[in-house]
């Protein structure tokens, strides 16, 4: 695998900026991709958040394996930490998110109310890797398009306070990327779900990694996607399977093109509800 050079210096800067702003917020909202809850976590987050109320969102739960999502919810919950799974495209979920934010901030709100404040402002910051759904969540909370939805990995945004519903104010922060490059599987998982640029890895390497995982954990989905039988798939190795699928999908021997197509289908949930971080 080529040495990864994609981690831009401004991501580090973003982390430092977030550290500076931590004192200003009441609740830290960490957005994870429910399909890769471990790989989409930044290892420094726990240290960074410290004792601050911490809300973890397993977003894109509509695309993830529901059994795995339940397990991750349990695994990630802890002292001072609330976890919710959601689909940010579903409007009703914002009500739940708002109540979770209020719940996470309850101690502070109670203190302020005891001092006479009525319905005090709750300040939050959202962070997560690119493409996990931060902008979508912010836009829904604020009720208009304020963040660049669909922004490309590596593109950062400025930091401003945004007024959201229920007296919540949001610090719009850039995503924080996982800097653990030495773990190849993490890189492949991030690439598979579009958190890093497609050009970082060759598509066929990621596709082969995906086929291996589908074979192991989602054979039923693979059988459907391949329009084949379990027996046929069992007989063939991954590189040959990739070539067979390329032909099956009418792309002759252009497996590079097919690999990207497979990843696009995966990202949209068209291969199945696939979670690649197993628990
Ligand atoms: P950001 O880079 O973290 O700000 O991610 P975006 O908010 O730009 O979202 C990336 C893509 O994922 C967009 O195409 C969104 O429409 C889509 N998306 C965001 N949240 C969800 C979700 O919960 N479910 C599904 N299916 N798609 C989502």
From TrEMBL:
The keyword Nucleotide-binding applies. The lineage of its organism: Bacteria, Bacillati, Bacillota, Bacilli, Lactobacillales. Residues 15-179 form the CP-type G domain. This is Ribosome biogenesis GTPase A. InterPro entries: G_CP_dom, GTP-bd, GTP-bd_ortho_bundle_sf, GTP-bd_ribosome_bgen, GTPase_MTG1, P-loop_NTPase. Its main location: cytoplasm. Required for a late step of 50S ribosomal subunit assembly. Has GTPase activity. It is found in: Cytoplasm. Keywords: Cytoplasm, GTP-binding, Nucleotide-binding. Belongs to the TRAFAC class YlqF/YawG GTPase family. MTG1 subfamily. The keyword Protein transport does not apply.
């Amino acid at each position: 695998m080529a040495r990864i050079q994609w981690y831009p210096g401004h991501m580090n800067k973003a982390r430092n900026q977030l550290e500076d702003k931590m004192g200003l917020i009441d609740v830290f909202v960490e957005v994870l991709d429910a399909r890769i809850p471990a790989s989409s976590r930044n290892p420094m987050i726990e240290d960074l958040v410290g004792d601050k109320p911490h809300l973890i969102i397993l977003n894109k739960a509509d695309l993830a394996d529901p059994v795995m999502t339940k397990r991750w919810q349990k695994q990630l919950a802890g002292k001072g930490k609330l976890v919710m799974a959601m689909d940010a495209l579903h409007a009703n979920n914002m009500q739940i998110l708002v109540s979770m934010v209020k719940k996470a901030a309850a101690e502070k709100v109670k203190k302020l109310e005891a001092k006479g404040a009525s319905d005090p402002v709750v300040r939050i910051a959202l962070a997560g890797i690119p493409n996990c759904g931060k902008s979508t969540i912010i836009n829904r909370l604020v009720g208009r398009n304020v963040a660049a939805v669909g922004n490309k990995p590596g593109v950062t945004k400025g930091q401003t306070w945004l007024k959201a519903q229920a007296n919540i104010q949001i610090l719009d922060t850039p995503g924080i990327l996982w800097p653990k490059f030495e773990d190849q599987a993490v890189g492949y998982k991030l690439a598979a779900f579009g958190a890093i640029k497609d050009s970082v890895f060759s598509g066929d390497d990621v596709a082969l990694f995906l086929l291996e995982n589908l074979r192991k954990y989602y054979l039923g989905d693979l059988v459907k996607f391949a329009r084949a039988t379990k027996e046929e798939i069992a007989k063939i190795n991954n590189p040959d399977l990739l070539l067979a699928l390329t032909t099956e999908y009418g792309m002759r021997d252009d497996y590079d093109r097919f690999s990207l197509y497979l990843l696009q289908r995966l990202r949209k949930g068209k291969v199945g509800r696939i979670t690649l971080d197993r628990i």
